[in-house]
Design a protein that fits this description.
By secondary structure, this protein is an alpha+beta fold. Among the domains are: about 110 residues, Butyryl-Coa Dehydrogenase, subunit A, domain 1; about 110 residues, Beta Barrel (Butyryl-CoA Dehydrogenase, subunit A, domain 2), CATH 2.40.110.10; about 180 residues, Butyryl-CoA Dehydrogenase, subunit A, domain 3 (Up-down Bundle), CATH 1.20.140. About 60% of the residues lie in helices and about 10% in strands. It has 19 helices and ten strands. The strands form three sheets. The chain has a four-stranded mixed beta sheet. A four-stranded antiparallel beta sheet has the order 2-3-7-6, with helices on one face. Strands 9-10 form a two-stranded antiparallel sheet. The protein is globular and about 70 Å long.
Length: about 575
């Protein structure tokens, strides 16, 4: 999958399906596959032998010997280039490693993932050759552990609220401030810190690399958390830290762009981890359902249990398809995958949460007990929906990012129309005729999107309905985006419930695309429908259900009760309590 520099989903938002990307699903057949299988086997065996999830949860700490083992296995240098002592994994191989690790235990996965997915990723993506030579070798071995320091008590998803500040002092900066909920913060030696600085008379955010040995770096006690208890989460303090000016990433004031670039790739790691959770809980639930007896039957024979198991498998198949479709886009290089990464994180973490609940329900009372491990997994899994941008914020992000190109086109056409209002001479008339042609072409494209489903060709006949649903879903996304722009204009940014519906249409459209791509390649490479009956069924079920959700969201765009929802919420905030008590009438 390569050769294009355009975002798959940005194209779909604008009414165009990049069809060439849908005919070659990136199955794991790269030249490094045999090497990865050996590495994966070693990692899996080591985790089973050395990491006791229940013990980590009880002791709320990863033992030093486990950290040492992770470092010796090279797990802190997976993405780092070989010239600096790392394994130079592609995004696909790295995501697969996090999936594998999270099948076993989430805190170990989080420690390794936070180090690479976000902690050192700024250096990896934006660092100079000198900066990389200075820090990468120690980061690869784990001699230095990295952390990402963005969040503050008044700044989470709203990065503009950052109060940490750097001030230039000769060839150094002086850093003061604090950062909240920093993963690995209790033992990290290397921090990617985001702070305000005065750039040409204006406060802007810069990114700067800080190491603990610079002095003035300290941290508070470990936070008491619902889950992921063994991972280190602390507040980190920076007091008059003198940081060499050469440690700035990018240019002064580039910090926001750098943070977004880091988080885009970090979200794929979370998607891989969520997939590992889903597969592990599904496997455990299938085994339990087969062996648990009720009314002289295995509970796996009961329809309601079968429905739960099938839903869990659909989540696994859909997320796997979406995640590795996206990592292949990343590995192809120079492609904007920000929307796809956000989709994978949102869907993946919510699917994992749903699967954890289903798994606990299948286990009944046993699932609630500590010995089965599900109650720990449930607690650990809840953070995913909050991590690295809450899913609500990410829905806003992916909707607004997808709308950017269609909105700019509408704006351009609006300017052209405005210029037609004043025709005074022959030259301007000729100009107007040319502009009318441009506008007519754009209008024709809008009509085409509204009336005709794009015809997709070259897919297996067994997927005829699914391919039609993909074309219809893509048309629905483009048409809904266009409608919202026309209806709300610049006020659309305040219509969060509508934007969430648009985001959910985009999520389900991407799901359909990834599943159709995978199913088509599977049928072409693995013997057709006769030899793949069940896999074809799961793909068809996923696509049908996703299209049904799209239909519901499209309907809700035009017919909803948003006004009533807002009214009730405002009333609750005014009263600051539940205002409908039965005893309020005397």
């Amino acid at each position: 999958m390569g050769g294009t520099k355009t975002s798959f989903m940005k194209n779909v938002f604008s009414g165009d399906i990049p069809e060439s990307l849908l005919h070659h699903f990136p199955f794991f057949n790269t030249p490094r596959e045999e090497e990865f299988r050996l590495v994966a086997q070693s990692i899996g065996d080591w985790l089973k032998e050395n990491v006791d999830p229940m013990k980590l949860d009880d002791e709320k700490k990863i033992p030093e010997d486990v950290l040492k083992g992770l470092k010796e296995m090279g797990l802190f240098g997976l993405i780092i280039p070989e010239i600096y002592g790392g394994s130079e994994f592609t995004q696909t191989l790295y995501t697969r490693t996090l999936e594998l690790m999270n099948k076993h235990e989430s805190c170990v996965t989080l420690t390794v993932g936070a180090h690479q997915s976000i902690g050192l990723k700024g250096l990896y993506l934006f660092g100079t050759e000198e900066q990389k030579k200075k820090y990468m070798p120690k980061l690869a071995t784990g001699e230095m552990v990295a952390a990402f320091a963005l969040t503050e008590p008044t700044a989470g998803s709203d990065a503009a609220g950052i109060k940490a500040r750097i001030v230039r002092d000769g060839d150094h900066y002086v850093l003061n401030g604090s950062k909240l909920w920093i993963t690995n913060g209790g033992f990290a030696d290397f921090f990617t810190v985001f702070a305000k600085e005065n750039v040409d008379g204006e406060d802007k955010i810069s990114a700067i690399m800080v190491t603990r040995d610079m002095g003035g770096v300290s941290h508070g006690p470990e936070e008491q958390k619902l889950g992921i208890k063994a991972s280190s989460t602390v507040e980190v303090y920076f007091k008059d830290v003198r940081v060499p000016a050469s440690n700035v990433l990018g240019k002064p004031g580039d910090g926001f762009k750098i943070a977004m670039g880091i988080l885009n790739q970090g979200r794929l790691g979370l998607s891989g981890g969520a997939l590992g959770t889903i597969k592990s809980v599904l496997n455990q639930s299938v085994s339990y359902a087969k062996n648990r007896k009720a009314f002289q039957h295995s509970i796996a024979d009961f329809g309601v249990i079968q429905d739960m198991l099938t839903e869990m498998s659909c989540h696994a198949y859909a997320l796997e398809s979406m995640t590795y479709f996206t990592t292949a886009l990343v590995d192809a290089g120079d492609i904007d995958y920000s929307i796809e990464a956000a989709i994978c994180k949102v869907y993946g973490t919510e699917a994992a949460w749903r699967v954890l609940n289903l798994g606990m329900q299948i286990h009944g009372g046993n699932g609630y007990m500590k010995d089965y491990g599900l109650e720990r997994r449930l607690r650990d899994g809840r953070i995913g929906i909050i991590f690295e941008g809450t899913n609500e914020i990410l829905r806003m992000f992916l909707a607004m990012t997808g709308l950017k190109e269609p909105a700019s086109e509408f704006k351009r056409i609006g300017k052209e129309l405005q210029s037609l209002q004043n025709i005074r001479n022959l030259e301007s008339l000729n100009d107007a005729i040319g502009k009318i042609g441009v506008i007519s072409e754009f209008a024709l494209q809008q009509v085409k999107q509204s009336v005709v489903s794009e015809k997709l060709e070259g897919f297996h006949p067994a997927l005829e309905k699914e391919v039609t649903r993909l074309a219809d879903a893509s048309k629905a996304l483009a048409n809904t985006a266009s409608k919202l722009i026309r209806q709300y204009g610049q006020k659309l940014v305040d219509e969060q419930m509508q934007l969430c519906r648009l985001a959910d249409i985009a999520i389900d459209t991407f799901m359909i695309a990834a599943v159709v791509c995978r199913a088509n390649s599977m049928l072409e490479k693995c013997g057709g429908p006769e030899k793949n009956t069940t896999e074809l069924s799961i793909a068809q079920l996923i696509v049908r259900n996703a299209k049904a959700r799209i239909n519901q969201n499209v309907y809700s765009i035009k017919a909803n009760r948003d006004a009533e929802v807002k009214q009730i919420a405002l009333h609750l905030c005014e009263t600051e309590t539940y205002p409908f008590e039965l005893n309020r009438i005397s």
